[in-house]
Amino acid sequence: MEEVRIISPTAILGYGFPVSSFEAGLKLKPHVIAIDAGSTDAGPYYLGAGVSFTAKEAVKRDLKYILKAAYSLKIPVLIGSAGGAGAKPHLEWLLDIIDKVTDEECINFKKSIIYSDVSKKLLLKKLREGKVSATTVEPTLTEKAIAESERLVAQVGIEPFIEALNRGANLIIAGRSLDIAEFATFPIWKGFPKGLSLHLGKILECGAIASEPGSGKDCLFGIIRKDHFLVFPTNSERRCTKISIAAHSLYEKSSPSKIWVTDGYIDLSETKFEEVDDRTVKTSGSRFIPIPSSRLKVEGARFIGFRFISIAGTRDPYFISSLPKVENEVKKQIRDNFSEIEEGKDYLVRFVNYGIDGVMIGNLDKIAGEVGIIMEVVAKDKELSKTIMAFTRSTLLHIGYKGRKSTAGNLAILFSPSDFDGGKVYEFSVHHLIEVASEKEVYKIL
Amino acid sequence: MVKLKDIADIIRSKNAGPYILTFDIIFNDPSVYQKVKREKIINKKLIKKLYHISEKEILDIIYFDVALAIKFNLKRPICSGSFGDRDIYGAQQHSPLLEVDVFKKPEEVN
């Protein structure tokens, strides 16, 4: 095999892609379709609650094109981080959609399903054996954090995907996995250099985000050869440039010259990016440096309570300049009114003032003339959360302050009903590396 | 003064995992990149001031010559999505960098 051609249809399964771009890619006869379905970007809720951040119908739409194309071209499809967070409920959610598509289209595949859930027992054992470390600046992992976790998943690397290909699978659906893995596995399996294959995977995993103008909803095409790879978008309105490819090599990673995978890292210190035409970038020189034992990143989320929010705005300059003080006074009135419960323990209250410091603390030279206020309450008990929310909103609406002229009400309340049920709230409890002799300690293939 | 937004092609922030914010400043012109690098315009003192943080929250400042890029990493004040977080994806923390003064304009020299 002289080269392997890979199409990455979109950044995340369910984000969509233009059919014309996908068809243009299919004309180039790809050997494999690879697609990432997940991320922790959307926050801890999705892992904790066991639901996807993508919509079922959107995922089904993308899969219909992908699976039909793979079936007619007789090429494999590799999907990683099923259902977003990649735990068992997410994986089963995706498998259900796949079954619907294959039934409706009367097509079939030899499926391999890779589970990458981690049991609390295994993580506890690793912790006690001293085989757990922080990836960077995480708090030290405790047995309590493990016990409180709703569910745990590990980002598996290429090992289970290789095993699935060896078993003859042509549709591989993995739970949580390294986004690079589902793209890099096929060329590595075919004997192409690991460093280049992994680096190509890093570029392809977000679809056309690595092109100009960037898009998370369009296709990117990769061709890997013995000593380099080429990347270009299949939509002629986009192009890959040295800067777009180099920039994507840095994207979402804390180190630009070392991109870590489970069993080592890609060394980019000798990497060269060249523009071979006005839409294609050639990359060479990326090397794989192995480490003695593999390390898998484990992610976990724990439940912290139920959220209610309320949205309002103001253009009153006196109110705006008094806001921080007034909001502290509202918190005090909540504590006085509900003296049998404790702020910080039974409930949390927050005000986010867009126009002042909604996006980040400090930095604004001048405060806006119109401010949006989000009131947020999180409490262990749902009824309590609703009660504190209602009290917070009505108190902020009518609270008096020094210099007040608008005594009929402080807020432009946006909706009726004014308070919204934000559902369950989670936070990350585990984001740590475990040392394993083989990834087999974690994954299961069915 | 010439500002960073006038000479950099890309100025962006994003989570690198839920505990780290990673910032990329990427240039198109190698001589401009080299000048910014040589003069250490992106330094810890500047970052501390722009982000109201202490030095120990600045994890590193890295120069990546092949991409004409400067990257720095900050410890997130609050883990992504935990109570109190304001930017789950970390994608809107770049704006203080836009207005950083980098060089004097030619007419301001002398």
Short key terms for the protein model shown above:
heterodimer; A: 446 residues; alpha+beta; 12 helices; 28% strand; globular; B: 110 residues; two-stranded antiparallel sheet; 4 helices; 23% helix
Distance between the termini of chain B: 13 Å
According to DSSP, the number of beta strands of chain B is 6
Q: Mind describing the biggest β-sheet of chain A?
A: 10 strands, mixed
Number of strands of chain A: 20
Spans of at least 5 consecutive residues with low confidence of chain B: none
Q: Average pLDDT of chain B, to the nearest integer?
A: 93
Number of helical regions of chain B:
4
What would you report as the Rg of chain A, rounded to the nearest angstrom? 25 Å
Unreliable runs of chain A: none
Overall geometric form of chain B: elongated
The strands making up the biggest β-sheet of chain A line up spatially as 12-13-9-8-1-2-3-7-4-20
Bin the strand percentage of chain B.
25-35%
- Can you give the mean pLDDT of chain A? 95
- List the quaternary state of the chains: heterodimer
Q: What portion of residues of chain A belong to β-strands?
A: 25-35%
What structural category do the secondary elements of chain A indicate?
A: alpha+beta
Short description:
The complex is a heterodimer of chains A (446) and B (110). Chain A is α+β, with helices and mostly antiparallel strands and 446 residues long. Helix content of chain A is 31%, strand content 28%.
Write a structural description:
- The complex is a heterodimer of chains A (about 450) and B (about 110).
- Chain A is built from twelve helices and 20 strands.
- Chain A is α+β, with helices and mostly antiparallel strands.
- In chain A, strands 12-13-9-8-1-2-3-7-4-20 form a ten-stranded mixed beta sheet, with helices on both faces. In chain A, strands 5, 6, 15, 16, 17, 18 and 19 form a seven-stranded antiparallel beta sheet that branches.
- Chain A is globular and about 80 Å long.
- Chain B has about 110 residues and is of the alpha+beta class.
- Chain B has four helices and six strands.
- The longest helix of chain B has 9 residues, at about 30-40.
